[in-house]
């Protein structure tokens, strides 16, 4: 009886400290294996092969494989829709990245996590905080939210612009086992209908290889991911260069949050002018390190991948006004940037686009860029 009283009081202390640090909710989940996740990864092996190589998701689906002494999963929630996002960044960068929920030593979110972890350690617990522990599934199991058909977890009163973080501890804290459920209205299919690429191919199922968000940061950039963004996906990427929020933006369960008048984020307001597609397309290394990486952190490891995304976005959304910028990027030293710039010029097309591609073909040496330039000309 005594031990039970102590455990309850420890839970209370943990909750209070997490809220004090600025987290918006805390839950406790049982550590049993996430068999549904293992099964989903097995069934969709093709699309998720890269996750095994990079994240070892399959392994982390059983928290006790990652940490044999684990007894409870603690789930922290961080609502990242408390400040408004500048219009100049919306539609280009996903809100979760704009919110900068990064673990690094110099980042505020990372500092919150470190403080929380050290609090648990001071209480005598061993803590495993691994990004690959299934955070969404753990949040649902802890009873904090329910899955939407768009695969995001929806939290009562907050919607889905909320990041769950999960950690395993070796203390028995009475973690619960909620069945995975959904509270989507029966007749709602808006997320699936709005997904431009068909990545949401069935309720609760996503094909990462078709997802814009995945393509912006994984293609070519992450080991095990396909090296290129297929042309049929490129033309559906709109102006996104990092992430995609469409299936959350259309969700009726997010509308009240999206319509809220929120104070602006002074940091985002200050840096928004650095993120025009034209600047991203032709940025130099110093610009990337000093101006871009602090916002986008380390998920795009080389600037050429962000330049590629900017070329696609310009091709999709800027029309002939983008041609002078693409003409410049056709001289970039990276063949990848030249290749996607050629694609973008072909996508814009017109007399000026054709002339630019023909001029470029006459001076290009790289076989990949030449092939892309030839393909772009053929489409015109
Ligand atoms: S993030 Fe974008 S591309 Fe991916 S599933 Fe949602 S709407 Fe589709
Ligand atoms: S758009 Fe509709 S179906 Fe999709 S997650 Fe939201 S409520 Fe569920």
SSE order in H/E notation?
Answer: HEHHHHEHHEHEEEHEEHHHHHHHHHHHH
How much strand content do the residues show?
A: 5-15%
Low-confidence stretches: none
- How is the biggest beta sheet arranged? 4 strands, antiparallel
What is the helix fraction of residues, given as a range?
40-55%
Count helical runs. 21
Query: Strand sequence of the main sheet, in spatial order?
Result: 1-2-6-3
The radius of gyration computed from the alpha-carbon positions, rounded to a whole number of angstroms, is 23 Å
- What class would the helix/strand composition place it in? alpha+beta
End-to-end Cα distance, whole Å, is 78 Å
Small molecules (ligands, ions, cofactors) in the structure: iron/sulfur cluster
- The overall average pLDDT, rounded, is 92
Q: Could you give a short description of this structure?
A:
With 380 residues, this protein is of the alpha+beta class. The protein contains 21 helices and eight strands. It has helices at residues 2-20, 35-43, 45-54, 57-60, 63-66, 95-98, 108-122, 135-141, 190-194, 212-218, 231-234, 246-249, 255-259, 266-271, 277-281, 285-296, 303-317, 323-329, 335-348, 350-363, 367-379; strands at residues 25-29, 72-79, 127-128, 146-147, 153-154, 162-169, 200-202, 205-206.
